[in-house]
Amino acid sequence: MAAEGRRLWACHLAWALLCSVSVQKQHESWRGQLTMAFNRTISLNPTPAGAAIDATGRIEVRARGSEQHFEVGIDAALADGATFTVIANGRPAGTMALASGAGNLHLHNLAGNLPPGVDPVCHLQTVEIRDSDGNVVLEKSRLFSDSAAAP
How far apart, in whole angstroms, are the C-alpha atoms of residue 97 and residue 31? Predict the structure, then answer.
């Protein structure tokens, strides 16, 4: 098998394992139905533009059964009202504004459909936070490939 084929196979295997992190047997009355549980918190990396505003951030991804949650947080040394756009897998996921130096975007499929770049949450590959000028201030690629994703 060529090196590229092995790499692709390994990537698919890793996604399959991550998306089925833990399978738990439910209450006896459910007659053995199974559900998937997935919960990760991952730190975002500051870019030079992010370091200039002392930005730090994290994402939290949770899935259980059919419920999916995607949360992004940022702390930055900017005035209240500064806005940021979250980009997931190259697609806009939402916006957030700072209040007391912190901003948060919380999306879940209980309130409606998740944006296309976020759904399904276990297939996220990249997340960026961009300032109002479009500069990437925080980012993370290969979300589930390093120790930051360990349970």
Answer: 46
